[in-house]
Automatic annotation (TrEMBL), chain A:
Membrane topology: Multi-pass membrane protein
Family of the protein in this entry: Belongs to the TonB-dependent receptor family.
Protein name, per record: TonB-dependent receptor-like protein
Occurrences of domain TonB-dependent receptor-like beta-barrel (ranges): 291-751
An example molecular function term from Gene Ontology annotations: siderophore uptake transmembrane transporter activity
Automatic annotation (TrEMBL), chain B:
Species this chain originates from: Jejuia pallidilutea
Record protein name field: Uncharacterized protein DUF4249
Lineage of origin: Bacteria, Pseudomonadati, Bacteroidota, Flavobacteriia, Flavobacteriales
InterPro entries (UniProt xref): DUF4249 (IPR025345)
Length: 791, 281
């Protein structure tokens, strides 16, 4: 019934389309003149009118206006504005190549720029777009540019413990972020447990983070979407980029291909610090490498193919007896097809995979867990008129989950082979959305997504007494596994469980004047797959599990309202947003839950909810020698997990408790200052309330050991987190005719060597027997130097 | 096994950083609670008549644990089938003992403690233990292929759920090392457990050398006790490390039926045990 409803609304929208008349469309793509990269977010408009458009992810734009003579203007921050006189008397196709603003010629220097300058008119709120240039100017730890650490400087985005993977958006958990690399789902964003991110800055074009108001074309996660796009590769000249750092180095090559009908990019990275350590007799080693590939081919004016791929791997060796590794692999084939001046389409076939492998030589067994998905996606944009843009599409994802497989690795291993139930699922989505200019002042985006999740058979499902996989033992006051009374075997052709959800999205922008607006948004989102983790941080051995008979999809409602203002000729902008978010069916783990090698996860969890609210403040300076921003967030994120059908009081007696990613105050200041053509300086100032933790409230002796007893979950807090980082970039004097361009990047992370606690552990000193609290601080002061080059 | 999975991650962090220091932290303080260490350990092949129970009070986390002994409690164990009672008398220093206990394999017993007007009850079953098949030493194997270790082999009975508990201690050690294992992944197999020490200057620990003496206790335990002791060991070993599990209140089986919130810490276990003293060659 629901899909039918959607079709009807699509038809209604399309009937509006037919009424357009006496107007013509101008369409085309906007690219960078120096390397042919398509530009996402460039603004194209007809001077003196309200007709305009922003280029999409593939650089495409389409504007519709009444016949007449116009000045067509293309502007993109950091690039010289281009203007072209046109006579609009038929549909036209005009491609633009624009050049980076030369700092020597321009009066106003444009260096590091933020999003496209704040867009007052678009209803899209709660979004941050970062250009790689901006990210590259921020000080970084160990000299490696890190996209994930950069977005953590934005309001509403926080990190887990230092040295842990993932990020948290508006009080959401790390598994509630949809991370896409060229549309492929990335399941683990970290190398070396969060020391580096999986995104190689040399291969990335731009990064867009949706913290709320998630457009209808995205689905599957309830907190945010991080949309990372790889570069297409230089289609004009062959180019080499590289960087040599203390820990890792990278090299990328790009250039034209197929007789200038396409281009390619190959980028690789690897760490080598372990080699020095091994040379100095250290037996343990940890290292990573990754590879990005991309190529595209212009079949003709209206058809373009893209192929992209990513392969990354982390390896850890501990002497001869332990090895472990994990990695993401993804691949994507895309076909851009332009039906007409007004209709743009893209078809994608996407594959992605994440696996974790562990080899215990001491115990003669190995372990692997894996998630694989295949995704087909089709998106259409219809630029109907200057007032209406329609987007619709569909996608289908097939998942294979291998939650764990244990194999003995020698004949005298005492371990039996074990394969946990392999799980399969389909996640389908169908959406339509319309951005409509209601009046000169009011613009609305109305979207609807219908998602349908099928948990496929091919595995047994345990049946429990009274249908309860987990029960409260009233006598002992603890949760225990329910009584298994049998199991149902589902054939691969059978369906275990299905879920369907209508996900409405609404965004409004009301322009107060030329420079300020008020925006409001509502979104309802569903998430069908969940990361099982009862540890304090996301670890590579956490496994993903689909919704099914026992685990329900997470459903989120988010309301946001904000005030947006540009001032001083768009040099400064101010964004103030407040949000309220709820997530139903957020599972949490009972005390002492055991998730590893656990075939029946349902016996360890209770169904709860999450709520978060906050106020975000972002003040930026986008122009001039000095650029940067100040971001401040005050927020609260809490969880409640009652006993429900299992009985008993639930977790923390069924009271609200802080979610692990709650941070009351979160302040980031980041700035970049261009002193002259040779020197550029950057700095970050970061302050965050310590994260909620569980501390002991007592102790006693048992078996000769001091045993701590712990208080309510997340009732205490670590000390506040703060640090300052600085960096300096030096570009040696170079002759313009030389192709080799180098730069030195010097950085100091945590300049006053604050020992920020990643954790405090409570234990007994084995030498003295006394109890003590031990602080683990991951990064003290970390100086770094790296040399980047371009040829 | 789970333990090792977490430990490896902790190890990774340590390799990377080793930036740990001891700090002063304000921790919450809960009211003191009775602690019952009622470990009825029946040395295999003996009468098992002499048994002790230790009662103490819990304290705030950083307090000295010296003056916590509980005096004046009345303690008895009842055989649930025969209703035979074994009264444990106060021996001072929080120790209550009897020399008349009669252990019976797979027999359920009830512990009753009366202290300051509160009654605490616990019920458990005496769990047998299989024999040790072989005990030997090796260098290859364990966490470190150069360090000496003592290997204990035993045969897990097939097609039944079994749980084991080890306590290792080197002569002169201040603290023992505990290990609890299920046969979940090893059912019916010959199992090997090793005790090895790494050189660690920070805690004054050295690898085993010939002549060193290791005391090993090998217990058969119930599933309910495994759930308790496994969590206890896990929390003891890696409480609150960044990749550890969220620590939780540890509840044993000593309940207070009249006043459930005032339950006792600790556990009433009945387990058959094999004690071995191993001298490294």
């Amino acid at each position: 019934m629901h899909p039918k409803l959607l079709c009807v609304s699509l038809l209604l929208l399309l009937s509006v389309v037919v009424t357009a008349q006496e107007k013509f469309a101008i369409s085309g793509t906007v690219t960078d003149a120096s390397n042919g990269e398509t530009l996402f977010g460039a603004s194209v408009f007809l001077e003196g009118t309200t007709s305009g458009a922003i280029t999409n992810e593939y650089g495409f734009y389409s504007i519709t206006a009444e016949a007449g003579d116009y000045n067509l203007i293309v502007s993109y921050v950091g690039y010289a504005t281009v203007s072209k006189k046109i006579s609009l008397n038929s549909n036209q196709k005009i491609d633009f190549e624009i050049s980076e603003a030369s700092t020597e010629l321009d009066e106003v220097l444009v260096i590091a720029e933020e999003s496209e300058r704040l867009n007052i008119k678009s209803p899209q709120m709660s979004v941050s777009k970062l250009k790689l240039e901006t990210i590259k100017n921020m000080p970084v730890v160990l000299g490696e540019v890190d996209i994930i650490k950069s977005i953590q400087l934005l309001p509403g985005v926080t990190s887990g413990a230092e040295g842990s993977a993932g990020f948290n958006v508006r009080g959401g958990a790390a598994d509630q972020n949809l991370v896409l690399l060229d549309e492929a789902i990335i399941y683990n964003t970290s190398h070396l447990f969060g020391f580096f991110s999986v995104f190689n800055a040399d291969a990335i074009k731009d990064v867009k983070l949706y913290k709320g108001g998630i457009p209808a074309r995205f689905g599957g996660r309830v907190s945010s979407v991080l949309d990372v796009r790889q570069k297409d590769g230089n289609s004009k000249n062959f180019e080499l980029n590289g960087g040599i750092g203390l820990i890792s180095s990278r090299l990328s090559a790009e250039g034209p291909l197929f007789n200038d009908k396409g281009s390619f990019l190959v980028a690789g990275r690897g760490s080598y610090a372990h080699l020095f350590l091994q040379a100095s007799g250290e037996e343990n080693a940890a290292y990573f490498y990754d590879l990005n590939l991309k190529t595209n081919y212009n079949i003709d004016k209206n058809n373009k193919l893209y192929l992209s791929g990513y392969f990354g791997r982390d390896e850890f060796n501990f002497g001869a007896n332990f090895n472990s590794g994990y990695g993401n692999t993804s691949g994507n084939l895309r076909w851009n097809h332009i039906f007409s001046d007004r209709v743009f389409s893209n078809l994608s076939f996407i594959y992605s995979d994440y696996d974790y492998v562990l080899d215990f030589k001491s115990f003669d067994f190995d372990w692997i867990s894996e998630i694989t998905n295949y995704n087909i996606k089709y998106d259409l944009s219809y630029y109907q008129s200057d007032r209406l843009q329609l987007d619709f599409g569909l996608n289908a994802i097939y998942y294979d989950f291998n939650p764990g497989e244990i194999n003995p690795t020698s004949p005298n291993s005492s371990i039996n082979p074990l394969v946990l139930d392999q799980k399969r699922a389909f996640e389908n989505g169908l959406y339509a959305s319309a951005e409509y200019e209601v009046s000169d002042k009011l613009t609305a985006t109305i979207g609807l997504r219908y998602s349908y999740f099928i948990r496929n058979g091919g595995q047994p499902i345990t049946e429990y007494e009274n249908g309860l996989p987990i029960v409260y033992n009233e006598t002992l006051g603890v949760y225990e596994e329910g009584n298994a009374i049998g199991e149902t075997n589902y054939a691969k052709s059978e369906t275990i469980k299905t879920y369907g959800n209508l996900e409405p999205r609404l965004a409004l922008a009301y322009q107060l004047n030329e420079n300020s607006s008020i925006k409001a948004g509502y979104s309802h989102t569903a998430q069908y797959i969940h990361l099982l983790s009862n540890t304090l941080s996301v670890t590579p051995l956490d496994v993903w599990t689909p919704s099914g008979s026992f685990i329900k999809p997470q459903l989120s409602d988010q309301y946001a309202i904000g005030y947006f203002k540009n001032f001083k000729n768009k040099s400064y902008s101010l964004e103030i947003e407040t949000y309220y978010k709820t997530v139903a069916n957020r599972i949490d783990y009972v005390d002492g839950s055991d998730l590893i090698g656990q075939n029946t996860i349902e016996t360890e969890i209770l169904n709860g909810e999450l709520r978060a609210y906050g106020l975000e403040f972002l003040f930026r300076k986008a122009k001039g020698d000095f650029t940067g921003w100040l971001a401040y967030t005050i927020s609260k994120a809490e969880q409640r997990t009652p006993g429900g059908a299992a009985g008993g009081p639930g977790i923390n007696n069924g009271n609200w408790y802080y979610a692990p990613h709650d941070r009351t105050h979160d302040l980031s200041i980041t700035g970049s200052y261009k002193l002259n053509d040779k020197w550029n300086f950057g700095a970050n100032v970061i302050y965050q309330t310590g994260r909620p933790v569980t501390y002991p409230d007592g102790q006693y002796t048992y078996e000769g050991l001091n045993i701590a007893n712990f208080s309510d979950r997340n009732a205490s807090r670590l000390t506040d987190y703060h640090r300052i980082d600085v960096s300096a970039t030096y570009v040696p004097n170079r002759k313009p005719e030389k192709r080799w361009k180098g730069e030195w990047v010097f950085g100091i992370y945590n300049i006053y060597n604050r020992r920020n606690a990643a954790s405090i552990s409570f234990g007994q000193n084995r030498e003295t027997g006394a109890n003590e609290a031990t602080r683990t601080a991951i990064f003290g002061i970390v100086p770094s130097v790296s040399y980047n080059f371009k040829f | 096994m789970k333990q090792h999975l977490y430990n490896i991650i902790v190890l990774i962090l340590v390799v990377f950083t080793s930036c740990t220091d001891v700090v002063d932290v304000d921790v919450p303080e809960a009211a003191p609670r009775l602690v019952v260490e009622a470990s009825i350990d029946w040395e295999k092949g003996t009468q098992g008549n002499e048994q002790f129970i230790k009662l103490t009070m819990s304290t705030p986390f950083f307090d000295n644990l010296s003056n916590t002994d509980v005096a004046g409690a009345s303690v008895k164990i009842t055989n649930n089938t025969t209703n035979q009672e074994f009264v444990f008398t106060d021996q001072g220093a929080g120790i209550y003992g009897t020399t008349a206990f009669v252990p019976v394999v797979n027999q359920t017993y009830t512990l009753e403690i009366n202290y300051q007007g509160e009654t605490y009850i616990a019920e458990e079953t005496m769990t047998p233990v299989v024999d040790i098949d072989e005990i030997s030493q090796a260098r290859i194997g364990g966490f470190n292929d150069e360090a000496l270790e003592v290997d204990i082999y035993f045969n897990d009975p097939p097609n039944q759920e079994n749980f084991y508990f080890f306590r290792f201690e080197e002569e002169g050690d201040l603290l023992p090392e505990l290990l609890a294992i299920p046969d979940e992944f090893t059912d019916g197999n010959r199992m090997k457990v090793f005790f090895e020490k790494e050189d660690d200057e920070d805690i004054g620990q050295e690898e085993f050398e010939p002549g060193d003496v290791a005391y090993i206790k090998f217990h058969g335990i119930s599933k309910q006790y495994f759930n308790y002791i496994d969590l206890l060991i896990e929390q003891y070993d890696n409480a609150a490390n960044p990749f550890g599990t969220v620590p939780a209140t540890l509840k044993g089986n000593c309940i207070n039926p009249a006043n459930p919130d005032n339950y006792a810490f600790g556990y009433f276990r009945l387990s058959q045990v094999i004690s071995v003293t191993y001298i490294f060659q």
